[in-house]
């Protein structure tokens, strides 16, 4: 073993890579000096990585050292002959992987590379981390390990941050990204929910919690002289729990609470996030989401009053928690039923309050819950989402007794995520085989997730085997191929790409079910089993329509109606292993390592300025940026948000879960961007947000994540990133 100079010593000396990287932002003769980023990358590897990398005489001695010193688990390594591991490394070395940008290399070594306990030396390169992922997720299967190594080293597949970071490590957090739990209307459930939030935050994931079932402030409490305090005090307790349970200060605990828009506490719920809220009720770090049934859009459109229904009364009459009642279907019955306490407010005034808060903070997220359930092929009801609004799965409530143990164990959710890199997957020698490899890697995560501290999550995961494969790099692909974001060609491409993801994940899940002779629980009650899920693919043609997109897919298999019909028969006969398969997460952080654009959104800037803790600003040029691609790289803040909504709608029709759709607006809106602004103020108003939310609803969008606003003083509102859930 050869010791090198410590990372801390290097950081305190004069280095050139920061200055070189910063020079990208200084035009030379009217041109962006992209060569400076290449120079910064080379300097970083030369000045930081090479001098600080622990080296070993042989691969065998490296693994022996890492196992002996508790850096890597022994068990997954010993599932392979070491000669195979050497073969795997030979394959990876021959791939000749190189980072393309300074940001990519910096992000990897700063946040993902294994380091010594004293944080002074690197213990792995990108190839080493890829090898650990391939060996770990293949679980002893040599062919799968080679296939996984191929997908990850060529950056066609990117495991979610917790999976990529923790795979194979001896001392690690969980491999899953985030969690969803529900609280029902009793103190035992509230107490258990707070305990669950503490435990899950300690593990490391973001936590989504629905409070819709809790009785509103002022509602009566059985056998007690007094009234309920409502949801806001529970929000405060949860916020304190996340702040306390923060992995020994290594990260901020992260959580989101959801509330149905027809809950009697909806106004105070929203008010708790306002900047001028009283400190007794204000929540600073907790995220907010609102569950919006169709009926709300109808009442707003007709400028009618709306009734808010107290959950304890609804549950008393309907016999199920409030979340499980179809508000749109039952609205008139709920209004007429005198046994259910209710109060009346103006629907449009509440709509305006939602928009005001989104302007001020970026919150709340919006879940169009009826849209979600109409598209749901699984028996049961989806009642909430997660910290990034893309996970949408059915749940069942638990019943707890006075010892806070379960009389009836329900189902809650853990999220097992990964992402395709669109540019690179489109260059795959076999699109379908690549997707199957990704599904098998994600299947390992769901099979080996065992969150015993929250039994309802453990139970739900064991029954459902859910995964969430998504995508990143859409804008990069479009610009590289000289297609404008939001054009008919870009919509055509998005439709075909996600149709293929759906088809091949169904094929892979069906194949795994056949191999194991096992399906997810309740498969026989699903629309997959009865075949109705496949109707749209048998009745419509999702093949490329435009000449440009036909050319792009000319070497890639496009399933015909006959192929879909054959798949329908195979699914009916052998089943699906996974209850859910697809979800598009924000994947902001790790898109840099992939040298691509985040998720399906447009870029923010052609040269993105990112503030990194301790070191200051780093600049990241858009992928494939050149004089030829510059016109195709328009900022999200200068883009009509209806184009983003249209893109997401094309993808959403093929995605069984949700997508983290962010809207980007300027506080002063560019002239001509929205026709309804003509003759009115150019300042962003609550009306603008209302119009866009309604447009998204009518396009079939299931969820809206952040509203990000670029203000006139060059700051961003609602620009927070959920680090626990980003891929």
Outline the structure in words.
This protein is α/β, with parallel strands linked by helices. It folds into three domains: 155-177 and 416-600, Anaerobic Ribonucleotide-triphosphate Reductase Large Chain (Alpha-Beta Barrel), CATH 3.20.70.20; 180-371 and 385-407, Anaerobic Ribonucleotide-triphosphate Reductase Large Chain (Alpha-Beta Barrel), CATH 3.20.70; 607-620 and 634-717, no CATH class. The strands form seven sheets. The protein has a seven-stranded mixed beta sheet with strand order 13-2-3-4-5-8-19. It has a three-stranded mixed beta sheet with strand order 1-14-15. Strands 18-20-21 form a three-stranded mixed beta sheet. Helix 12 links the parallel strand 3 (206-210) and strand 4. Helix 6 (82-94) runs parallel beside helix 9, helix 11 (187-203) packs parallel to helix 12 and helix 23 packs parallel to helix 28 (641-652). The two termini are 34 Å apart. 50% of the residues are buried. Residues 1-6 have low confidence and may be disordered.
Question: What is the strand and helix layout of this fold?
Answer:
Blueprint lengths: L6 H6 L4 H6 L12 H18 L6 H10 L5 H4 L4 H13 L7 H11 L13 H13 L3 H12 L3 E3 L1 H6 L11 E5 L4 H17 L2 E5 L21 H13 L10 E6 L5 H6 L15 E5 L2 H8 L3 E5 L1 H8 L8 H10 L5 E5 H15 L3 E3 L1 H6 L6 E2 L11 E2 L3 E2 L5 E3 L4 E3 L1 E5 H4 L5 H18 L6 H10 L3 E5 L1 H7 L7 H29 L10 H4 L4 H5 L7 H6 L8 H14 L32 E6 L3 E6 L19 H12 L10 E4 L19 H13 L4 E2 L2 E4 L5 E2 L10
Parallel strand pairs: 2-3, 3-4, 4-5, 5-8, 14-15, 18-20
Antiparallel strand pairs: 1-14, 2-13, 6-7, 8-19, 9-10, 11-12, 16-17, 20-21
Helix pairs in contact: 3-7, 6-8, 6-9, 8-9, 9-20, 11-12, 17-29, 20-23, 23-27, 23-28
């Amino acid at each position: 073993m050869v010791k090198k100079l410590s990372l801390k010593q290097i950081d305190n000396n004069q280095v050139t890579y920061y200055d070189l990287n910063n020079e990208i932002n200084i035009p030379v003769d009217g041109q962006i000096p992209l060569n400076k980023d290449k120079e910064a990358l080379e300097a970083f590897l030369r000045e930081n990585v090479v001098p600080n990398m622990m080296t070993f005489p042989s691969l065998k001695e490296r693994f022996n050292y890492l196992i002996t010193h508790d850096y890597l688990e022994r068990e997954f390594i010993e599932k392979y002959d070491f000669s195979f591991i050497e073969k795997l490394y030979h394959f990876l070395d021959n791939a000749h992987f190189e980072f393309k940008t300074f940001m990519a290399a910096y992000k990897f070594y700063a946040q993902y590379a294994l380091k010594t306990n004293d944080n002074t030396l690197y213990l792995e390169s990108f190839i080493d981390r890829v090898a650990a992922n391939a060996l770990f997720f293949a679980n002893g299967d040599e062919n799968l390990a080679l296939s996984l190594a191929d997908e990850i080293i060529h950056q066609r597949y990117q495991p979610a941050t917790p999976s990529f970071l923790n795979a194979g490590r001896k001392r690690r957090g969980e491999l899953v990204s985030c969690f969803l739990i529900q609280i029902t209307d009793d103190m035992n459930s509230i107490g258990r929910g707070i305990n669950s939030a503490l435990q899950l935050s300690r593990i490391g994931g973001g936590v989504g919690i629905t409070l819709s079932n809790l009785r509103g402030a002022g509602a009566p409490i059985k056998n007690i002289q007094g009234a309920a305090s409502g949801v806001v005090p529970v929000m405060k307790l949860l916020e304190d729990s996340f702040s306390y349970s923060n992995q020994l200060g290594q990260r901020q605990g992260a959580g989101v609470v959801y509330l149905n828009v027809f809950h009697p506490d909806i106004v105070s719920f929203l008010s708790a996030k306002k900047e001028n809220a009283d400190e007794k009720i204000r929540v600073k770090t907790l995220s907010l989401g609102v569950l919006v049934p169709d009926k709300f859009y109808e009442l707003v459109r007709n400028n009618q009053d709306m009734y808010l229904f107290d959950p304890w009364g609804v549950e008393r009459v309907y016999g199920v928690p409030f979340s499980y009642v179809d508000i749109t279907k039952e609205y008139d019955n709920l209004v007429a039923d005198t046994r259910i306490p209710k109060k009346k407010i103006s629907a449009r005034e509440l709509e305006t309050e939602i928009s005001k808060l989104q302007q001020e903070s970026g919150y709340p997220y919006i879940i169009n819950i009826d849209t979600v359930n109409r598209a749901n092929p699984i028996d049961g009801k989806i009642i909430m989402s997660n910290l990034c609004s893309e996970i949408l799965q059915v749940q069942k409530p638990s019943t707890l007794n006075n010892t806070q143990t379960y009389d009836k164990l329900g189902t809650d959710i853990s999220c097992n995520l990964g992402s395709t890199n669109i540019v690179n997957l489109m260059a795959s020698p076999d699109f379908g085989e690549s997707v199957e490899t990704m599904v098998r890697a994600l299947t390992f995560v769901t099979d080996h997730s065992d969150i015993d501290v929250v039994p309802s999550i453990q139970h739900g995961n064991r029954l459902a085997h859910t995964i969430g494969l998504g995508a990143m790099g859409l804008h990069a692909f479009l610009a590289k191929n000289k297609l404008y974001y939001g054009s008919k060609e870009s919509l055509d491409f998005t439709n075909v790409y996600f149709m293929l993801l759906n088809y091949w994940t169904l094929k892979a899940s069906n194949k795994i079910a056949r191999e194991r002779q096992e399906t997810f629980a309740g498969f026989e009650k699903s629309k997959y089993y009865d075949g109705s899920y496949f109707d749209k693919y048998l009745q419509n043609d999702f093949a490329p329509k435009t000449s440009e997109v036909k050319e792009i897919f000319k070497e890639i298999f496009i399933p015909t109606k006959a192929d879909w019909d054959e798949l329908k028969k195979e699914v009916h006969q052998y089943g699906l292993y996974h209850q859910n398969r697809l979800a598009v997460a924000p994947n902001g952080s790790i898109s840099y390592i992939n040298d691509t654009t985040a998720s399906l959104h447009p870029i923010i800037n052609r040269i993105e300025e990112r503030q990194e803790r301790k070191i200051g600003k780093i600049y990241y040029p858009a992928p494939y940026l050149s004089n030829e691609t510059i016109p195709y790289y328009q900022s999200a803040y200068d883009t009509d948000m209806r184009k983003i909504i249209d893109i997401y709608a094309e993808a959403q029709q093929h995605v069984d879960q949700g997508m983290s759709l962010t809207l980007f607006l300027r506080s002063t809106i560019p002239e001509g961007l929205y026709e309804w602004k003509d003759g009115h103020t150019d300042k962003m108003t609550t009306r603008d947000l209302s119009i866009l939310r309604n447009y998204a609803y009518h396009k079939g969008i299931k969820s809206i994540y952040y509203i990000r606003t670029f203000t006139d003083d060059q700051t961003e509102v609602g620009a927070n990133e959920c680090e626990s859930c980003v891929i």
